Amino acid sequence: MLSDDEIIRDIHRRRSRAVEILYDRYAPLLLGICMRYCGNREDAEDVLHDSFIKIIRKLHTFRVKDKGSFPGWMRTIAVNTALNFLRDRQKSRNTVPAENIPELSAESGEEEEQEFGGRILDIPREQVMELICGLPEGYRTVFNLYVFEDYSHKEIAGMLSFSENTSKSQLSKARAMLRKQLTGLAMQKTESHEKSSGSAG
After folding, report:
1. What is the pLDDT of residues 112-161, one digit of tens each?
2. What proportions of the chain, in percent to the nearest 5, are helix, strand and coil?
3. Sign of dihedral through CA atoms 33, 37, 39, 40?
4. Where along the chain do the CATH 1.10.1740.10 domains lie?
5. Could you give the residue range(s) of every CATH 1.10.10.10 domain in the chain?
């Protein structure tokens, strides 16, 4: 299997197969990121497509810094593209403007696992991601930037042009909404398990 360095080298040599390999390797990860911001697959796929175009066009600017930096570099581009998409969508809807969303300059860390007190660890990750995608757009954006990208409320407030208190409030409401939904799912699973156990007995 080709390493990332080998794929990058082959793309620089204009070998189209290398682009296909890169896409196949990282599209699922980046699509998941785009889904979390966009909230639906159709928009996420458009953002993913735009992200990969930018990745290929900007590949000559990538410099190896440390192990794992290439996926982080691509992740940053995907997040930037998703934020720009949300900004443009807000403008078209004549909602609260977000002209001051900047490009992210720092590499982001790995995705955090959902905690919520450790009470919902048996909920499949796919279901958790679906619930995140279903959050209202403002809640979802703040939640993603704070939980997954590890930005502070001060940084988020600057990026989205509102106050730190608004960022904290939206995060709190997002977590409360998710906690309620996840607790409900956990209870449904428990009830379903009890019924099936009773039937078996």
Report:
1. 334 444 444 466 778 888 889 999 999 999 999 999 888 999 999 988 88
2. 70, 0, 30
3. negative
4. 1-110
5. 114-201
Half-sphere exposure of residue 119, counting CA atoms within 13 Å on the CB side?
13
The fold of 114-201 is Arc Repressor Mutant, subunit A (1.10.10)
184 or 98: which leads in pLDDT: 184
pLDDT of res. 193: 63
Residue type, 58: K
Is pTM beyond 0.90? Reply is no
Distance CA 31, CA 20 (A): 15
Class of CATH domain 1-110: mainly alpha
Cα gap 171→176, rounded to integer Å: 9
Structure-block tokens of residue 115: 């905690």
